[in-house]
Amino acid sequence: MAALPKERRQRVQARAMELATLKDLRQAAQQTQEQLASALGVGQDTISRLEKRSDMLLSTLRHYIESMGGQLNLVAQFPNRPPVVIEHLGRELSTSRNKTGAVQRRGRSVASGAAN
Fold it and tell me: Which residues constitute the signal peptide according to the record (predicted)?
C-alpha cells in the first residue's frame, strides 16, 4: 500500500470501507493470496481457508490486516454512549520478570476511555 500513489491509496481505503469480506479487502489492496501468504509465512491454501471462515481469533485477523499494511481497530458501540475503542485484544502483551522471577505483564486497561 505504501508504494501506491496517494490518490490510489485513498481510493483503496474508500473502497475497503464498503467491503464485507477478507477476500474483498485483499483484492482492494491488489494482493494475491500467494503474496499475502508469503507475507504471513504460510501457504496459499491457508489464506484461501482463512478467507472462507466466518469465525476466527482476533490475533489471526489482526495479522491478516497488518500484513496488507492496514490496522485493525475494534470498536464497541452502545446506545446513548460514545463508541469505545478496545485495545490489546488479539495482541500479545509483553512480559518481563521481576527480581523474584515472577512474570509481570505490561499493558494498559482493555478499553480506552472506559471508566474504572
Answer: none
Percent of the chain residues past pLDDT 70, beyond the cut = 72
List the beta bridge partners of residue 84.
76
| Beta-carbon contacts of residue 57 (< 8 Å; ≥ 6 apart) | 90
Q: Amino acid identity of 37?
A: A
**Neighbouring-strand partners of residue 96:** 104
In a domain, 1, yes or no: no
Q: Tens digit of pLDDT for each residue in 55-98? A: 999 999 999 999 998 889 899 999 999 999 988 765 554 444 45
What pLDDT does residue 2 have? 75
Is the same domain home to 15 and 56? yes
DSSP percent split of the chain into helix, strand, coil, nearest 5: 40, 15, 50
Range of the domain at 28: 6-72
Beta carbons within 8 Å of 17's beta carbon, 6+ residues apart:
none
Specify if 111 maps to a domain: no
